[in-house]
Amino acid sequence: MADQRIERYLATIAGRLRSLPPSLREEELREVRQHLDALVASHRARGADESAAVDAALRQFGRPERIGRQIGTVWARRRPPRLWPALVSYPLLVVAIFAMFTLLNDRPTDFPYELGDRLVLAMALPAALLVARVSRYRRARTAHLP
Description:
Helix 1 (about 1-15) runs parallel beside helix 3 (about 50-60) and helix 2 packs across helix 3 (about 50-60). The longest helix has 24 residues, at about 20-45. The protein has two domains: about 1-80, no CATH class; about 85-145, no CATH class. The chain has helices at about 1-15, 20-45, 50-60, 65-80, 85-105, 115-125, 125-145. Helices cover about 80% and strands about 0% of the residues. With about 150 residues, the chain is mostly helical.
């Protein structure tokens, strides 16, 4: 009975850790199990029977959904940022800005004047965002090197 409650508790935590690689997920679950076993042993040493010790340990450890969410959040912060969203969004932003300049420039006095100017400006505006994202990505990658 007690083992089933701990297994359900761990399964609930594991459900919140699906985004982690399997090896990290197993490592985290193994660590949670060790802490739970230590808490159960501590309550048993104080004179509680097995069932009461498991109940007290689970209550003391906290809600499994919250524990799983916290572990997942910690690992998400440790993971370096991804570069592909910036690389995909840059050409889309260039096309959107170029289209805006082309469609909204209906008078010959509007800036930018020529199609080449519009394209250069459309490429330059989101370039700062791309450079910032790439530099953040490189800093995070060098910080995560072993």
